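User: For a benchmark we're assembling, each entry needs the component sequences followed by a predicted structure for the full assembly. Here are entry 17's components. Please fill in the structure.
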Amino acid sequence: MRRFRVFLTRLFGSLNQRRSEREMAAEIESHLELHIDDNVRAGMTPEQARREALLKLGGVEATKERYRDRKGLPWLAHLGQDVRYGARQLRRNPGFTIVAALSLALGIGANTAIFTLFDQVLLRLLPLKNPQELVQIQWRGERNAASIGGATVSYPFYRDIRDRNQVFSGVMCRFSLDLSLARQGQTDRVAAELVSGNYFEVLGVSAALGRVFTPDDDRIPDGHPLAVLSYDYWTERFGADPNILGQKILVNNFPMTVIGVSAKGFDGLELGVRPAVRIPVAMAKELMGFFGNAWNLTNRRAAWLELFARLAPGVAREQAQASLAPLFQSILESEADAPDFATFGLPSWTAHQRAYTRQQFLKSGLDVLPAAQGTSWIRERYRTPLRVLMALVGVMLLMAAVNVANLLLARAAARQRETAVRLAIGASGSRLVRQSLTEAAMLALLGGAAGLLLAVWLDRVILALIPAGDTPLRLNTAPDARVLGFTLAVSFAASLIFGLLPALRSSRLEVSSAIKEQAGSAATSPRLRKALMTAQVFLSTILLLAAGMFLRTLANLKTIDPGFRVAHVDTFSVSPDLNGYRKQRAIQYYRQLLERLRALPGVESAALASIRIVNGAWWGQYVGIDGYTPAQDENMIAAFNMVTPDYFETLGIPLLAGRYFQVSDAGSGHGVAIVSESFARRYFGERSAVGRRFTLYDSGPMAKPEIIGVVRDVRYETLRDVPPREVYLDFDQHDDPIAENVYVKTGSDPARLLTALRAAVRSVDLNVPISDMLTLNDQVARNLATERLVARLTAAFGLSAAILVTAGLYGLMAFTVARRAREIGVRIALGARRRAVIWLVLREVVALVGTGALLALPVAWGLSRYVQSQLYGVAGGDPAIAGGLLLALIAIAAVAAFIPARRAATLDPTLALRCE
Amino acid sequence: MAEKIDVWQGTLALMVLKTLETLGPLHGYGIARRIEQTSGDLLQLNYGTIYPALLKLEQEGYVSSDWRTSENNRRAKYYALTRTGRKQIQKEARQWAQTSAIMARFLESAKEPV
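Assistant: Structure for entry 17:
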C-alpha cells in the first residue's frame, strides 16, 4: 500500500517537472547559503566558504540529478526520451516506416480478422450466468426409436432424468424447428424452439417484458398455447411494442398468446440460429404434424429432444456422468421390457435381429458433455477451416515480423557509426536495447492500428462470402475489447520478434572498429540478414503451398459432375404445410402452383421434389429386396426423394432403362418407383432392375413398389459425397405429399426470372412463405462456399507473402551489390564478362530461395496431413502445385534480382574504385 | 586520525528521522550537520545525499515539509516528522537494535577459541 502511494507520488512528480525543478534549485541554493554563513562565521573568506560548501555538498548537478531520479520515475523519463527519439527516427525515414508498417499491418490485420471469427465461432461462451455449469446430455448407442437428430431422447425419458437425478440443479429440453408466424396479414417463416417449461429457469434468462415460461407451462398436452418472443424479433418485427402482451399470433395457423419477451442479448443455444419465438413443448402435437404423429409427450419410442442441464454446485461433469449411469441403466431395463419396445421396428425383423437390437439398446450410454458454448453445426463445420486459417495467418505474421527485422538490421547497419558513438560516450548497452525495442514497439503499434482497420474490412468480406441462406450468420465484425487486446498482444509479440535481434546486435558492437571503419564495410556482414531471408522464403513457401493445395481442392471440386443440369434452372422452397395445407388441399395447392409457373413466359418446365439436392438434406429409409440377403450389419438404408414426373426432364437426369413416371401412374393403384444406377447395380447386379419390386419400411408396413425405370446417379446430400443408392417416389401417388422444393427450367437467363417466379407463387397464396430462392448454379456454388473462402484467403495470404519476400530479397540484394561494388568493379576491370557478374548476383538469390524452399517442402507436406479433411483430390507431390510453386519462386527470384543484377553488370569500374 | 566510514544505504533514513525526533523541524543543511556531529565526525557524508533521502521519506509519508525563515533570516525548507514517521522510528530502531545485537553476538563468539 505504501509502495503504491510512493509510486503515485513519483508518477505525479514526473508529470510536474518544471515546478519541482524550481523548488529543488531554491532548496539547494538555501542550503549553500546556510553553509556559507556558517563557514564565514567560522572565519573563512567568502570564496573559501563557498568552495568548502560546494565540496561538502558533492556537486550541485550531481545532487540535482540524484534528486530528480528520486522525484520522478527515471524509467518513465527514459521511455519518454526513447519515444521522442523513435518518433524522430521514424519520421526521418518515411519510406522505411511505411514499408515496415504496411508489412506489419498485413500480418496483424490478417491475424485480427481471423481471430475475430475464431473467437466468436470457437471460443465464446454463452452469455449466461455461470455458463461453464451448463452441460448437454446425449444418448450414445441404439435407441430403437424413430428419431430426429443423432443423440436425442424422448419426452418421458427427459422427465425421468429431470425428476430422478441428484447431480443437476435443473434439466431442460428443447427442439429446434422452423415455424410460420403470422399477425395482421404478414407471414414470416422463422426459426423457433419448442422448450420445456423450465427452459428459461435452467438457463437463468429472465423476461424483458411480461414473463417467461415456468415449469407450470408444460404440464397439460396441447394445453398451453403460449409464446415468448425473442428480444430481437420483438423489436424488429413489432417495433418493441409493449402492447403485444396478451395478443394472439398465429403459429402455423394456430393461435397462441404472447406472454412475454425474453431478455435482451439472449439469442439461444445455437450459434448463428436465433429463434424468434419459443413455445412450450406441450404444444408439440400442433406444431410437429409436419414430422408425423410420433412426436408427443408420451411416446418413448420417439427420440427428438435435445437435453441440457445445469450442474449442481460443486458437481463435476465426469462425476455427473458417473452418477447418472445406474439411473440410466434402470430406465433402459424398464423401457426394454415395455410392450411398445417389442412392437417397434420393421415387421420383417427376425427374432434374432430383435434380440440383437435389444442387446445393443441395453449397451447404450449417456454422455454428459460440456455446453458452455451451446451447440452449433457452424462450429463443427468451420472448426478445422478456422484453425487452418489461424495457423496460416500466424505464419504470415511471423513472416512480416522477420521482414521488418531485416529492414531494421539494414538500417542498423547504416546507423552503425552513430550507435558506436553513443556507446563510446557512455550509453549503456541495455539502454540502447531498450531504445531499439521502444522504436520497434512504436512501429508495431502503427502496424497494429492499420491492421485493425484492415481486419474490419477483411471480416466484412469474409462474412459476405459465407452463404447464409435466409438466416444470415450474424457475427460481429466490429472489434471489441477481446479483439483489441488480441491485436495489442500480437503487435507487441511481433515487435519483440523483430526488434530484439537488431537491438541485441547493435548493443554488442565493437566500438573502436565500428567508428574507424566505413559504414557498410565488413563489420556488418549480412550473414544474419541472409539467414532471416532464408527464413522468409521458408515461411512464404509454406503459405504458397497451402494456397496451392486449397486452390487445387477448389478446382477439383468444381470439376465434379453433379449428374444433373445446373444451368438454366431456378430453385426455391415453399412451405404450404406451415399454413395448414395438408392432404387434398396440399395437392390442390401444388397443382395450382405448377400451372402458374408453367404459364410464365420463358419457363420450359417446372417440377417438385421433397428433398432439395446438394443442400445438405437427407431422407433415408430402410429397404428390403426380394431375393437379396443382406449381411448381418449391412446398411440397408437408401436415399429417397419424392418428385413430380417432370423432375427428371427439368434437371436433365438421363434415363438408363425402363421409363419415367407418367400421369397415368397416379391412378394405377399400385406403387411404382424409379431407382438410381447405384441402387440397381448393388441389388440386381447385371440383371435388369426394371419390373422388380422392393419393400419400403417405415415404422409400419408399407407398399412394395415396382421399379419402372433406372436413372443416372446424381449427387445427393452434398457435392463432395459420392451419390448414394437412391429411390425416387412418385409425388402424384401420395395422398399427403410434402414436396416443398420447386425447380423451374428456363431457356433464358435464370436470374432474371426470379422476380416473376416470386410473383407467381404469391399469386397462388400470399401467405405461403417462400425461402431460399436462387439459381441452381448459385446453390451448387454455395456448396463450395467454405472451400472457396479458404482458397481465396490462402491465395491472398500467399500473394502477400510473395510480395513481402520479393521486396525483402530485393532490398538484401541491392544492399549486397552496393557493399561489393568495389569487388565487382575490380572484377569488371580485370575483364569479367557481364554474364559472369550477373550470375554473381543471381547465384546468391538462387541459393537463398532454393535453401528456404527446400527446407519448407518436407515441413509443408508434413503439415498437409493435418488438413487432409479439408482437401479434395490433392495428393503429395501434385504436379500442378509443384509446378505452380516452382514458377512462383522463379518469378520471385527474377523480380528481386533483376535491378540489382543489372546495376552490378553496368557498374562503371572506374567510378566504383574511385568512390572509396 | 580515525577512519571515516561511508554512510550505509538505509541507515541514513533512520538517522534523519531520529534527528528530526530529537531536534524538531529542521532544514536539510541542519540535519546533515547534526548527523555529522552526532557521529563524532566519524561519518563521511556528502551533504547532497540528504536531499534524495528526505524526498524519499516525504514520498513515503514519514516527513512533511514547508518553507520557513531560519533564525538568521534565511529562507529554508523545513522538514518535520509525521505521526507515521514517529512509528516508523520505533520500528526501524527495534530492527536495527536486533541486527546489531546479532552481529555483536556473532563477532563475540567468533573471537573465542574453538
